[in-house]
Design brief:
Blueprint (H helix, E strand, L loop, with lengths): L2 H26 L8 E8 L6 H20 L7 E8 L4 H14 L4 E3 L4 H14 L3 E2 L15 E3 L4 H14 L5 E6 L2 H16 L7 E4 L6 H11 L3 E5 L3 H13 L4 E4 L6 H7 L7 E4 L10 H12 L7 H20 L5 H9 L4 E2 L4 E2 L7 E2 L5 E4 L9
Parallel strand pairs: 1-2, 1-3, 3-4, 4-5, 5-13, 6-7, 6-8, 8-9, 9-10
Antiparallel strand pairs: 10-14, 11-12
């Protein structure tokens, strides 16, 4: 055999022998991960009508990350958050996630905000195989059999059913609905109407408001004219605040109730006395009351960041990051997105300290059914 032929064959054999190691290295270099860091992506409303939700995601997730990183991170890697503003505009959400994928700036996705926004990115998430934990929506329309989306919070349909059942137990007849004129509001209005139908009733009225809130006064006038015994708010963010304020003046006797997405934490504060007596469902424990180990851990993480303002939104983000971190731990020291998806799907009865997450069964993966009812006081906090 000639020397040149021998060298060529030897080199080819060496390449073939090294192929498994090269493949492992390539997998380890999936976007958003290095030997030192794991970057988690998020597109959230840091501006616009739902800005409070995006701010809470940033604060809560970063508090959880700091707590985990202080203990050595995940298999020696530090967690980082890459959150990009979308202003609650679905097209911008899709553009942000598409950029993260093309730039390799996120290993996994966490808690993008909004029903229409999540609907816009689900095709991208499914096509890319990007693991996605805890979309910030409870809409059934985005809880499809997607292999790599892992919801944490309970669904809006369950929240609406709980509210309607409670109003029925109180003997209230004539329940109206005000809905935001977008996919979130329309779907929640349908959920509420079905819950009423199960009680042998139908909406006393159904009015809509734009996402920009321009027709709030008109909607308030319709409610004040009809005077339902109670009104369920299928609205969110700043629109909810303005509507509640105006209705309190125009028809103070109408009981208002909403779901977990109705008000941001800032919105609860802005309501002041106008919020007193509003009933809300909660998909997380009360962040102000350290009755569970979860809330105590959350409060400690927030205080370590110099934050004393404990909110439902930041607690939810804290929980969501903890769930993602659990998946990363189980994925091992040489994680890939496929390993992370498998690890998350394998979570069973994960007790975070009084809050259990369980992805038993097949997709769609929904980890929690926790729903509680609370009533607002005049300070923006829940009555104990």
């Amino acid at each position: 055999m000639q020397r040149r032929q021998f060298v060529t064959l030897a080199r080819n054999a060496a390449v073939l022998a090294a192929a498994p190691a090269l493949m492992r290295h390539a997998l380890a270099q999936e976007g958003g991960i290095s030997g030192k860091n794991i970057t988690i992506g998020c597109s959230g409303a840091l501006s616009g009508p739902l800005a409070g939700f995006g701010q809470d995601v940033k604060i809560g997730a970063e508090a959880a990350m700091a707590q985990i990183n202080a203990r050595g991170g995940i298999h020696g890697r530090q967690l980082q958050l890459n959150i990009v503003d979308d202003g609650y505009v679905p097209q911008r959400t899709a553009e942000n996630v598409r950029a993260m994928l093309s730039q390799g700036s996120a290993f996994a996705l966490l808690s993008c905000v909004g029903t229409p926004n999540n609907a816009a990115i689900l095709p991208l998430v499914e096509e890319s195989g990007l693991p996605y934990v805890a979309p910030l929506t409870g809409a059934a329309s985005v809880r499809k059999s997607v292999r790599n989306v892992f919801h944490v919070r309970a669904g809006y349909a369950d929240e609406a059913q709980r509210l309607v059942q409670r109003l029925s137990e109180m003997g209230l007849k004539g329940v109206g609905i005000v809905a935001m004129d977008n996919p979130y509001g329309r779907e929640l209005a349908e959920d509420t109407s079905r819950a009423l139908a199960a009680q042998g009733a139908k909406p006393a009225l159904l009015v809509t408001v734009g996402t920009d809130g321009r027709n709030v006064a008109e909607a308030v006038a319709k409610v004040a004219e009809t005077r339902p015994a109670a009104l369920i708010l299928a609205t969110a963010g700043s629109v909810s605040v303005e509507f509640a304020r105006q209705l309190r003046k125009a028809a103070p006797g109408v009981l208002m109730a909403g779901v977990s997405a109705t008000f941001t934490s800032d919105g609860l504060k802005q309501l002041g006395e106008a919020g007193s007596g509003i009933a809300l469902t909660m998909v997380m424990p009360d962040p102000q009351r350290a009755r569970s180990q979860l809330v105590r851990d959350y409060q400690a993480a927030m205080r370590a960041r110099g934050v004393q303002d404990f909110t439902l939104g930041s607690l939810e983000a804290y929980v969501n990051l903890r769930v993602l971190a659990e998946g990363l731990e189980r994925a091992g020291g040489d994680p890939t997105r496929a390993k992370l998806r498998t690890a998350l799907a394998g979570i069973r009865n994960l007790d975070l300290g009084g809050f259990v997450v369980d992805y038993a069964g097949n997709a769609p993966y929904v980890g929690s059914r926790y729903i509680d009812l609370a009533v607002l006081g005049g300070s923006g906090r829940f009555l104990g």
